Amino acid sequence: MARKTALAAWIGSALEYYDFFIYGTAAALVFNKVFFPASSPATGTLLALATFGVGYLARPVGAFVLGHVGDRFGRKKVLVFTLLLMGVATFAVGCLPTYATAGVLAPVMLVVLRLLQGLSASGEQAGANAMSLEHAPEDRRAYFTSFTLSGTQAGQILATAIFLPVAALPQEDLLSWGWRVPFWCSAVVVVVGLVIRSKIDETAVFKRTKAAKLPVAVLFRDHWVDVLRVVVAATIASVSTIFTVYALSYAVNTVGLDRTPMLWVGVLANVVALAAIPLLAGLSDRIGRKPVFLAGCAACAVLIFPYLWSISIGSYALVFALGILLFGVAYSGINGIWPSLYGEMFSTEVRLSGMAIGTQIGFAIAGLAPTVVAAIGSGKDDWIGVAIFTAAVCAVSAAAIATGRETFRRPTAELGRPELTGVRVS
């Protein structure tokens, strides 16, 4: 059952986050011209990146609602609902009129649909992570929960890969109909994803647990410190949003690099991450969650400097090498660990709520990072300030986890219960 659940989580997350990430790619490459053409190029780019961040603002709201549903009525209901909502909202983006056709109504509708995407994403990872963790063998929880995140990386590969031929279209075709194709493909995503999710069973530990009438009340009564810890730690996702959205926009719109090789950087980095995430997660099952997570934070804080510098000087060789090292390897030390690290902080009756609320508030902050760093400056030499900002986020996230407890040896039934002392089963 653990393998079946991990596979279902991997495929479901890949499909759902394909939808989520194609928006980020489109925001970086075309939305400034399609929905904000009346603005200056710099302002249009800033507004397009802001619509990407809007989706993250909706996520904390959705986390409270979907966290309650998942802990009160079951994880499966959340997973089916989020996939359906994400697919419908994404397909609708591809049908929107442009600013030239509908005026200001076009970007308004774009923001509304992005909010719906954010609501969906707020419960997706927490639900899949909770289910994978609760089905996993006690000594391999990190390994099995990591498949949700490697699925997310696969979704990013799909999103970037489908934009490669689209981005190669003549500018006129790209801006008129080409950018819509990836969004329309979400219709296939919904059908496949719903078939997969419908076959997942609820976990035994959830079935044995008496659900609280108001899980959020229990969460903030007994676990508020860990919720706060997850919020701060989850801001490390700024590395991802800056790499996938800001750096792409900076390279193409500011430095003038070709968009096709820059898209390939993301593809290859995520291919490497597909292997690195489960390997590093498996390592944390042997030596602990904290050492691997903290090493990933430190590596990201260091590597962001040479990566952005390599973009600024236009060296494609360095961009590829450093991008793969930063996002494919270093960031995988974070992505492979956080599903188990955060989930193990909470007891079964509040696990989905705790993970959803904590991560989505943190992710909301991270989602605004491309907008914040774009406001730092739009010049070719402003990358230094962006790198300093990113390194500071890494340091804060690392501090939050460093002050927490190690949980990898604790039995699943005793997770989130500090009054009990557990011994790892091997």
UniProtKB/TrEMBL annotation:
Which keywords annotate this record? Cell membrane, Membrane, Transmembrane, Transmembrane helix, Transport
Q: How does it sit in the membrane?
A: Multi-pass membrane protein
Q: Which Pfam family is one of this chain's hits?
A: MFS_1
The GO cellular component terms are:
plasma membrane
- Localisation per UniProt entry: Cell membrane
Molecular function terms from GO:
transmembrane transporter activity
Please list every transmembrane segment annotated in the UniProt record, as residue ranges. Answer: 7-31, 43-66, 78-99, 181-200, 227-249, 261-280, 292-309, 315-334, 355-377, 383-402
Asked whether the UniProt record includes Cytoplasm among its keywords, one would answer no
Keyword Membrane among UniProt keywords: yes
Do you know which InterPro entries this protein is assigned to?
MFS, MFS_dom, MFS_trans_sf, Sugar_transporter_CS
Query: Where are the coiled-coil regions?
Result: none
Question: Domain Major facilitator superfamily (MFS) profile, which positions?
Answer: 5-409
Which PANTHER family does the protein's record reference?
Answer: SHIKIMATE TRANSPORTER (PTHR43045:SF1)
Q: What is this protein called?
A: MFS transporter
* Source organism (scientific name): Lentzea guizhouensis
